[in-house]
Amino acid sequence: MCNNCDNMCDNCTNRKLHPSTVHTYLSTRTLSSGGRSTLDAFAPGTQYLILDAGGGTVDITVQEIKDDGDIKQIYMANGGDWGGTKVDEAFDEFLTEIVGSDTVDKFRKDDKVDYLGLCREFEVKKRSIRPDSTAKITIRIPLSLSERFQEVKGVSLKSSFKSNKSMSWVGDKLRVDPDTAKSSLKNHANALLTI
What we know:
Blueprint: H1 19-27, E1 32-33, E2 36-37, H2 38-41, E3 47-53, E4 58-65, E5 71-80, H3 84-99, H4 101-110, H5 112-126, E6 137-140, H6 143-153, H7 157-160, E7 167-170, E8 173-176, H8 178-184, H9 186-193
Antiparallel strand pairs: 1-2, 3-4, 4-5, 6-8, 7-8
């Protein structure tokens, strides 16, 4: 459902999809499902699942087409707290483990632009983390975070950071072993697997 004009339209990018709207939209498109046409795919008795994996929640709805063309809810939409923002929170916790909550708080407050830049960089990086990945994940750390660490802790971030097999500091970049990155996101992934 388009937030701008309350219709399904191809021109609007700001859409809010609802299960019944998805059904209406799909039933007007030329699609195929298992070699069947759209009309066959949405024939009475057909059951289908709608998965909305958004930023904050993952919603699942299972519906069935009734004989009169209406929709019967088989499994009502339920919002699990497993969306992409949970991955962002896991990164925030990871960063806090490295520099401490006092440093992260000061960094967020004093260097909002750099903090948002770091969040944007992670947004791109998190999409490239694959289960079978063996390459280290490299994240550019803003100089201002190192400066806030120095102010709060009284020592430089680089000198206090102990490089090891799982993480290393190279210039202004934090290099993280893929297994370490995956394990920091494991709770989020496990929650998704319980759906």
